Structures are given as C-alpha cells and as structure tokens.
Amino acid sequence: MHLSDGVLPTVVAVGSFAASGLCVAVSIKKTDGEELPKIAVMTSAFFVASLIHVPLGPTSVHLLLPGLVGILTGWSAFLSIFLGLVLQSFLFQFGGLTALGANGLMMGLPAWFAAWLFRRIGARGATGAVVVAAVASAAAVALAALILAALLATGGEDFFGVAKIAVAAHVPVLVVEGVISAFVVSFLLKVKPELLQHPAGRPSP
Amino acid sequence: MKACLALAMFFVSLSCAGGPAFGADPATAPSQAGPNAAVGADGERGTGEALRILEAIQSQQREMVQELRAVKREIGALKVALNEPGLKDIVGGIGYILGVFGIAAYLHARRRHSRSGS
Question: How many whole angstroms separate alpha carbon A102 and alpha carbon A12?
C-alpha cells in the first residue's frame, strides 16, 4: 500500500507534504529523548516489515505494522513511520518520492489512531490490553486503506470503489497484523511491561 | 577471374552445341518421353526432399521459438529480482535508522548534560 509518483494531483501531493511535515514536527516535539532507542528499534521493524509478504491468490500484500508502531511509540509513531517510509522509498523503491507526504499521512495517522485507542482503553487488564492491541492494529490497517481511498478520490477515482478494493485486499494483512500485535503485546506485558507505558510527565495521546 | 570467364564460355558453347542437336533430329523427339519421365521422378524426389527440409526447418523454428520464450521469461524474472531489495538494502536501511536515532540520542544526552552541568 504505497502510492507511486504521479498518481496524485500536484496540489494534493504538496498539501499532503505540508500536512506530513506538520505531523512530523508535532511528533518530534512530543518525543521523549529517553525513548529514542525504542523508537529506533520500532522504526527498523517498520522499515523491514514491508518486505514480509502475505500471499493472497495470484498477488501478495506485505505487512505494514502501523498499529504496532503506534502502540509502542505513541506520539513518536509518525516520526518513526515517516523516516521508515523515506528509507523504503530510497532503498526499496517502494512508493514515489513525490508521494512521500501522502504515504506518510496514510501510515502515520493510523499509527496515531492505534496509539490513541490503545492508551485510551487498553491499559485496564492484561487480557484487555492484548485484545485492544489486536483490534487497534487491525483498525489501523483498515484506516490506512480508507485514507488511501480518500487520497485517490482526490485524483478523480471513485472513493467507495477504491475503498472496497483496498480494504478487501488487506483483510489478510489486517488479520495477520492483529495476531502479531496481540503476540507482541502479550509478550511485552510479561517481559517488559514498562515499554507499553508512558514515561511520567508526558500527556497520553 | 580469367578461369571463370573460360568456364562460362565453355558452358555457353556446350548449350549452343546441344540445342541444335535436339532440335535438328526429329527422330529423337518421341524418345524424349523417357528422359522426361526420369526428370519428373527426379523432381518428385526433389520436392519430397524439399518438403522434408522445410519440415525440419519448421520444427527447428518451433523449438527456437519455445526456447526464446523461456529465455524471455527468465529475463523478466531476473528484472523483477533485480528490483527486489537485497540484504544490502535492508542492512543499510537499518544502519541509517540507528545512525539517525543515535545522533538524536547523542544531541539529547548532550543537551541534558549541559543543562544539568550548568
């Protein structure tokens, strides 16, 4: 789910760059310096995850992991994902350079959404946290597909048609990511629960 | 060059000598059916051989087309494989990420250090 060069109208591409830049600025502002190592690891995970392909009939879709990145890094997720996308674009030729802003919005906003959802209702019990993590990750993928459809709709595509196809194509990814997030969160809750919590003095998103 | 010219002259003289000989003797005309039939059989044999050669060429061409298709498919697969990121790209990307965050962490630590020091 990467937009390529020349798919979006110029105005939309420039606008999404501006919006992405704003989001990155907010993300940097809210990032706690003590958390940088964790963010670096999550960025690397996000960067590599796109190489893991889930076979789907004749074609295949790859993992996206915005939900997991959001759950683990909170506000810093946008920064993390944007950096990951920049490197994917340079090194893997995934998504065009001019569409980088749009791709950042498409992956970053769902990450923030997942972070918000997890922090809002996930911090109750261990089982609840795992379930909420799975749901948040799946919802993040679905939201990314919807943002993709909305962005393409600005280029003259039919929103509901694209949305239907994009969501349908990502149902396997959605399921796999939900399962992965559930496993990761349940593991972290046992091994290092403080990774899932906020350092003191920072407002939860 | 001179030898070629001599050879050509020889053939021309031969045909000139043979031409009138056939035409001049009417008695030999009926008997020409024999050699003509022989020529026909020869022609049939020639045609058969030509057909065989044609078939051979055609089957060879079919094989070539198939092989060419296989090669083209291989080239296409190679192109796709070339575009796929390799281990170098992955490790390089992770290195970039760790480097960028390392610099950020360093700046953060330095700022904190100078703040606590002053």
Answer: 8
Helix pair A171-191, A126-154: axis angle to 10 deg:
140
| Pairwise CB contact (< 8 Å): A87 & B105 | no
Chain B residues lying within 8 Å of A37, measured CB to CB: 101, 105
Report how far residue B6's alpha carbon sits from residue B1's, in angstroms, rounded to the nearest whole number: 9
Q: Which of B44, B90, B72, B11 is nearest to A92 (CA)?
A: B90
CA count, 13 A, side-chain hemisphere, B8: 5
pLDDT tens digits, A55-102: 766 666 788 899 999 999 989 999 999 999 999 888 888 878 888 999
Residues 70-109 of B with CB under 8 A from A: 83, 85, 89-90, 92-94, 96-98, 100-102, 104-105, 108-109
Give tens-digit pLDDT for A116-146.
Answer: 998 888 666 777 888 899 999 999 999 998 9
Residue A37 token pair: 């190592």
Helix (H, G, I), strand (E, B), or coil: what is residue A115?
A: helix
pTM for this one?
Answer: 0.73
Q: Spell out which residues of chain B touch residue A43, defining contact as CB-CB under 8 Å.
A: 97, 101
Q: Considering only alpha carbons, which residue of chain A is nearest residue B100?
A: A40
Structural domains of chain A in order of their starting residue, each with its CATH number: 10-191 (1.10.1760.20)
